[in-house]
Amino acid sequence: MKTKPDFLLLDGAAAEPLYRQIYTRFRGAIADGLLLPDARIPSARALALELGLARGTVEAAYSLLVAEGYVETRGQAGTVVTPALARHAATAATTASSPAAPAARARPAAASASSASALASLNRPFQMGLPALDAFPRKVWARLAARAIRATQPDDMVCPPYRGQPALRAAIATYLNLSRGIVCSPSQVFITSGYRNTLELITRALLQPGDGVWVEDPGFPATTELLKHAGMKLAPVAVDAEGLVVSHGVATAPRARAAVVTPAHQCPLCVSLSLPRRLALLDWAAQADAWIVEDDYDGEYRYASRPLPALQSLDRDGRVLYAGTFSKVLFPAVRLAYLVVPPAQVPRFEQVSQTFGSGGPILTQTIVSDFMNEGHFARHIQRMRRLYAERRQIAAQGLDAVLGKHLRIDPQPGGMHLILRMKGRHTDRALAERMRQDGMAALALSERTVLPHAASALLLGFTNIDTPQRARELGKRILRLL
Questions:
Q1: Do 35 and 20 contact (CB within 8 A), yes or no?
Q2: Residue 472 CB-density burial (10 A; 0-12 exposed, 13-18 middle, 19+ buried)
Q3: pLDDT for 383-401, tens place per residue?
Q4: Longest Cα–Cα distance in the chain
C-alpha cells in the first residue's frame, strides 16, 4: 500500500475539521472494500508527513477509527483494519460491484482464524464501559505528564507508597467531599490498580472463605467471579425498578457478611437505589454486623438531575466501603482506582495493603493528582456529562428509528450504555453472539443473571456514537442480523 492512499483527498477550506475528514475517508474506504480486513494502514507519523499535517490531527482521526472498531493497533506490527469486519466488508464490496469483492469473499478462513483476537478488542462499536476517548483532553494530559517527568527526582523512583501517593489521596478526599457528599480524610483513601484489586483488598481484610455475600442479580460478572475465587458463598439478590430488593436478601441470606451494590446506577439496569432501600440496607448491615461495598463506577454520569449523593454519605455506623475508579471518567489504560474505608478499619487495611496493595506507578498517580488539583478533572466530568447526554439521545433515536419494531429502548436517568428490550420471539443471547461475530460489541442481559425469569435485552455502550448517521448505520447492521 502506498504511503498516501488515493482516497485521502482533503479539503482545507471545508468547515469539517481535517481530522474528521481523514476519519470519514478511512471509514468510507473500509465500507467500500478499498481497504480489506487485516490490511495495514500508514502510521500516524508517516501519514502526517505525507499530508503535511500535525501528527496530532492524524492521531485524533485514528483514535476515532479505533474507538469505533474500524481499525485496531498491534504494537510494533502497526495498525490494521479490524479482521472481524471481513463479512461486512465483503457484503459492502459486493453491493458496490468492487473488483475487491472476490478477494473479500475468499477470506472467510482467515477471518475466522483471527476472530478470537478481534472479539477480544475493547474498541468495537457498542463497547461497554469505554469512555469517549475522542473527547479526552490529551494535550492537557500530555503537558502534565511532561512536567511530571521533568520534575522526577531520585526519591520518586523508589517503590511507591503502598497506600498511594499522598497528594492523590488528598485530591480524591477533597473531590468526594464536594461532589459525592462523602466526608473523609486522606488517611481513609487507598489507591489501587483497579476495581478487581479493590475488591481483593476488601475480601482479604474483612472476609473469610465461606462467608456469604449478597450480589445484585443481574449484576457485574467480574464481581461474582472474583468473589468465587476468593471462596465466598454468593447470594444473588433480585433487582427491580428501585434497585436492590433488600427484603429478598434478608429473606434468603440474612447472615451474609457483606453486600456488593451499585446504588448510583445499578449495573447493568442503570436504576438508582431508592432512599427507603438505602436506609433498609444500612439497617441490615448494622444489625447483621455486615459490610456494604458501594461500587460507584460511573456515578458522575446522571443526566436527569445532579448526581445522587453516595450511599456512604448516609452511613452512621461505619459499615460502608466506597469503591471508585478513574477508568470511566478518564480512560481504562490509566489503571487507577481508589477505596475509602471507615476510620476504624484504616489500620487493618494498612496492614493488608503492605502485602497485597497495588496502587500503580507513582508517575501516573502524580499526573492524575495534578489533573485534579488544577481543575481539569472537574471540568472534564462536566463536559463529558453534557456530551454523554447528547450521545445517548443520538444513539437511542437512531437505533429506535431502525429497530423500533423489534427492540424497545429503556429510559434511563444515567449511565454509559443503553438497554434494548427484545420484542416478539427474539432472544438476546443469540443476537448478541451474531453481533459479536459481525464485529460489534454486545452483551446479553440474560447472561448476567442466575435467578429465574431473566429478561431478554441487549446492553450496548453509546459513548462513542457521535452522529445520527452512525447510529442508523449500526442499527441497520443489527437489523440484518435479526
A1: no
A2: middle
A3: 999 999 999 999 999 999 9
A4: 72
255, β-bridge pairs: none
Contact assessment for residue 230 and residue 185, using Cβ atoms and an 8 Å cutoff: no
Output DSSP code: residue 186: G
Q: Cα dihedral angle (49, 50, 51, 52), rounded to 10 degrees? A: 40
Q: What are the φ/ψ torsions at residue 245 (nearest 5 degrees)?
A: -85, 90
pTM of the predicted model as reported, rounded to 2 decimal places: 0.74
| β-sheet bridge partners, residue 131 | none
For residue 217, list its beta bridge partners: 238
Distance separating alpha carbons of residues 94 and 84, to the nearest angstrom: 17
Helix (H, G, I), strand (E, B) or coil at 360: coil
**Which candidate, 303, 292, 361, 298, places its Cα nearest to that of 325?**
298
Q: Is the dihedral of CA 238, 241, 245, 248 positive or negative?
A: negative
Query: What DSSP string describes 52-82?
Result: T--HHHHHHHHHHHHHTTSEEE-GGG-EEE-
* Strands 407-409 vs 417-422: parallel, antiparallel or unpaired: antiparallel
Dihedral angle sign, alpha carbons of residues 18, 68, 425, 219: negative
Q: Structural domains in the chain?
A: 18-110 (1.10.10.10), 140-375 (3.40.640.10), 379-481 (3.90.1150.10)
Q: Quick one: which of 435, 440, 409 has its CA closest to 423?
A: 409
Task: Tell me the three state secondary structure of residue 292.
Answer: strand
Distances (CA, A) of 271 to 207, 242, 302, 367, 410: 28, 7, 11, 33, 10
Q: Are 86 and 39 in contact (CB under 8 A)?
A: no
pLDDT in tens, 404-441: 999 999 887 788 999 999 887 778 999 999 999 999 99
Continuous segment of H or E residues that includes residue 349: helix 346-356
Are the beta carbons of 190 and 205 closer than 8 angstroms? Answer: no
Q: In 3-state terms, what secondary structure has residue 365?
A: helix
Identify the three-state secondary structure at position 217.
strand
CA dihedral 37, 39, 45, 47 (to 10 degrees): -90
Q: E-assigned strands of 68-148?
A: 71-73, 79-81
- pLDDT tens across 218-258, in order? 999 999 999 999 999 999 999 999 999 999 999 999 999 99
**pLDDT digits 0-9 by tens, 435-479:** 999 999 999 999 898 887 778 899 999 999 999 999 999 999 999
DSSP 452: S
